[in-house]
Amino acid sequence: MPGQLNTVSVIVPCRNEQDYIEAFCRSVAAQAVPDGWALEVLIADGMSDDGTRERLAAVCAHDSRFVMLDNPGRIVSCGLNRCIEKARGEFIVRLDVHTVYAPDYIAQCLATWQRTGADNVGGPWKAQGVDGEQGTVQRAIAAAFQSRLVAGGALSRDLAYEGEVDTVYLGSWPRQTFERFGGFDETLVRNQDDEHNLRIHKGGGRIWQSASIRSTYFPRASKMDVFRQYRQYGYWKPFVMKKHGQAAALRHLIPGLFVGCMLLLLLLTLVGSLGMSYLPFGAARTVMIWGTLITASGLMLQALLYGMAVYAISFSIARQQGRDLMRHLPDVIAAYHFGYGLGSLRGWWDAIVRGRPDPAFGRLTRGKPAAR
Question: Looking at the structure, do residues 269 and 209 belong to the same domain, yes or no?
């Protein structure tokens, strides 16, 4: 009908975001939506108990475009699906509370979809820390996050890349994508977006990244929070791989293989050292000694090469992003890699041997980000 507006539906999962929800809603309300389009914002609250629901209810009462939904499942995949079920738009855009968006973010998502016809479109994943001494660790975390050397060559960290990718930050979809490929897997606490994108790829769909879709993500502000976060990311990845019988990308396997190799060499070294004390002098003891020396040497060589690579990458990042980050970068990079690697090993054990996930890995790990 003439004059009838199309609807773009914004979907947002959240839980316990009292300090950020109002500023986030203001930023979404200020988005420049193209002519002929109307905005609706569906926020699925995971039964927050910190005052988020009250603040969100006030926003909804003031602006009819905003709707709060209950998400009793309390995890991202459940919240996204509740929003998709209620969404009226022919185009759906996912947003995250801890990300700041360019004023034309939604407009650029729409334009990219209309230009490419892709089944999922999004922008690069840009991380940023706050300025000042208190934000140095967060800036180091953001700088390491942005490095493709740390991330195994992930195109999502390339701010200038334009083209097809295997996954994209947040994402936006024509409604037909969910009708064709289904919603998000509610058994996954993490990696539900990677699994959904893998499903799109396997089904013959396309995912497109555009540098014109701009946003800024504020990561965790402590090294231990990053370690816990990436241990959880690593943990849930094997469940995605088991479901589809393949990895979305080789980079998802490398941290687990690296950490597993180190642990195996360490175990063989310890067993050999203990075994030597119980064997009498003779050929068997000699073989045990040489075997232990070889495994210990392999362990030290792997640790040395990794340490050299980490410091080389750290120097490269610090030279570009600020020399004050150098004292934190090696720890941050190790937190990313070892967190993901250890999580992957535990995930493979639970996915293959136990056949079910551990509820302990079902709790979200976000601490309080630094103020911004």
Answer: no
Query: Is 237 among the domain residues?
Result: no
Q: Kindly tell me if the per-residue pLDDT of 121 is higher than 90.
A: yes
Q: Which domain holds residue 117?
A: 6-124+159-221
Q: How many CB atoms lie within 10 A of CB 244?
A: 14
**Residue 96, token pair as written in the block:** 């995250």
Full-model pTM = 0.84
Backbone phi and psi for residue 208, each to the nearest 5 degrees, phi listed first: -125, 130
Residue 98 near residue 129 (C-beta atoms within 8 A): no
Residue 367 confidence (pLDDT): 47
CA-CA-CA-CA dihedral for 63, 48, 86, 198, to nearest 10: 120
Is 38 within a domain?
yes
Distance CA 143, CA 128 (A): 7
Report d(CA 347, CA 354) in Å as an integer: 10
Residue 239 lies in a domain: no
Say if CB 189 and CB 361 are below 8 A apart: yes
Same domain, 202 and 113: yes
| Residue whose token pair is 């009793």 | 72
Q: Provide DSSP, 338-356.
A: HHHHHHHHHHHIIIIII-S
* Nearest-angstrom CA–CA distance, 202 and 193: 14
What pLDDT is recorded for position 157? 87
Location of structure tokens 């849930």: 236
Domain end residue (candidates: 178, 201, 221): 221
- Amino acid at residue number 15: R
Residue 42 · residue 67 · CB < 8 Å: yes
